[in-house]
Amino acid sequence: MPTVTVVVPVHNRAATVGRAVRSILSQTFQNFEIVVVDDGSNDGSAVAAQAIGDPRILVVRHERNRGASAARNTGIRSGSAPFVAFLDSDDEAFPTRLEKQLSVFEHASDRVGLVYSGAERVLEDGEIVRDIPIDRFDLPRVLLTTNVIGGTSVGMARRRVLDAIGGFDEQLQYTEERDLWLRISQRADVRCVPEPLVRIAQQTRQGRLSWNVEAVSRGREMFCRKHRDALIDHGLLHIYLRESGWWEQRYAQNLREARRLYRASLVARPYTPIAYFLLLSACMPVSWLDSVARFKHQIARWFSPVLMAHKS
Q1: Inter-residue contact 147 to 182 (CB < 8 Å)
Q2: Is 113 in the same domain as 256?
Q3: Percent of the chain at pLDDT above 70?
Q4: What does the angle CA 106 – CA 113 – CA 179 come to, to the nearest 5 degrees?
Q5: Domain endpoint, select from 153, 170, 203
Q6: pLDDT of 217-269, one tens digit each?
């Protein structure tokens, strides 16, 4: 019986899924199974995975695209190992990834339900950023507003914990990883390996190369509704609403919705001066905020040589 089920969801990534799967086949720990879930691809992604020819690879296909969360849930159900690791089809696992995460589980109590690692993120200009996590014991609070764990490719969870919480919420988009980590942390202990064990596909400094703005807005709203009681209990509702307002203002450029969210933030906590400033700024044209951003970047460029000379 395998020790780890590695779930690899794929949708139209025939060019990269083989690299992701081979990074698992090259692990120092070899007692695993790989479940590749082809989520309605039309570019031969399933064929690319099957062509590798290792008997530990199981390819499951969705006839239509159902989304990454549904694909991961199919992968969880299709496997049998007591631990489940995730790897996106355009990411890569370093050779010791499974070994080091399993070692943490082995030396920890049965209450540990999730072990995550750091990651190397390849930015669009080729720069590599290393994210090094630390163990945090306030995760159920922190994850309500910030995904300090990262994407699914860094995580390995106990199957019984995933079964207990029902896996990924297939209704969520954009916030599905943070929602899963949050629900695990509310039920079990979480530990980390403080080094990068995966390489994440090309990103901007802010995250994904291409954002589906509508999906992000909808995902943030659904996450807020789902975890509203916890946000109130931890005194974080006003922060979440304010950050949602900033997303609508800066990225969706929906000033009306931004003003609504800023007002809701002030209702949740009236004595937050920054929310009043943001509400005022949302009454200005979008071009005004763009001008402020350009001015900020120009100031940074002017002072950057001075700061570098001072450091040297």
Answers
A1: no
A2: no
A3: 89
A4: 150
A5: 203
A6: 999 999 999 999 999 999 999 999 999 999 999 888 899 999 999 999 999 99
Give yes or no: residues 255 and 130 share one domain: no
What is the domain range of residue 181?
Answer: 4-203
Q: What pLDDT is recorded for position 160?
A: 97
Residues 192 and 230 in one domain: no
Q: Is 126 left (phi over 0), alpha (psi -120 to 50) or beta?
A: left
Examine the domain organization and report whether 94 and 173 are in the same domain: yes
Residues 6 or more apart from 181 whose CB is under 8 A from it?
114, 116, 139, 143, 147, 149, 155, 190
215 domain residue, yes or no: no
Helix/strand/coil (H/E/C) assignment for every residue in the chain:
CCCEEEEEEECCCHHHHHHHHHHHHCCCCCCEEEEEEEECCCCCHHHHHHCCCCCCEEEEEECCCCCHHHHHHHHHHHCCCCEEEECCCCCEECCCHHHHHHHHHHHCCCCEEEEEEEEEEEECCCCEEEECCCCCCCHHHHCCCCCCCCCHHHEEEEHHHHHHHCCCCCCCCCCHHHHHHHHHHCCCEEEEEEEEEEEEEEEECCECCCCCHHHHHHHHHHHHHHCHHHHHHCCCHHHHHHHHHHHHHHCCCCHHHHHHHHHHHHHHCCCCHHHHHHHHHCCCCHHHHHHHHHHHHHHHHHHHHHHHHHHC
Using the CB atoms, write b or e for 251-271: b if 16+ within 10 Å: ebebbebbbbbbebbbebeee
- Do 51 and 83 lie in a common domain? yes
Q: Is residue 261 part of a domain?
A: yes
- Domain of residue 169, CATH code: 3.90.550.10
- Total count of domains within the chain: 2
- What pTM value is reported for the model? 0.89
Residue with token string 């900020």: 296
Nearest to 40 by CA among 56, 18, 60: 60
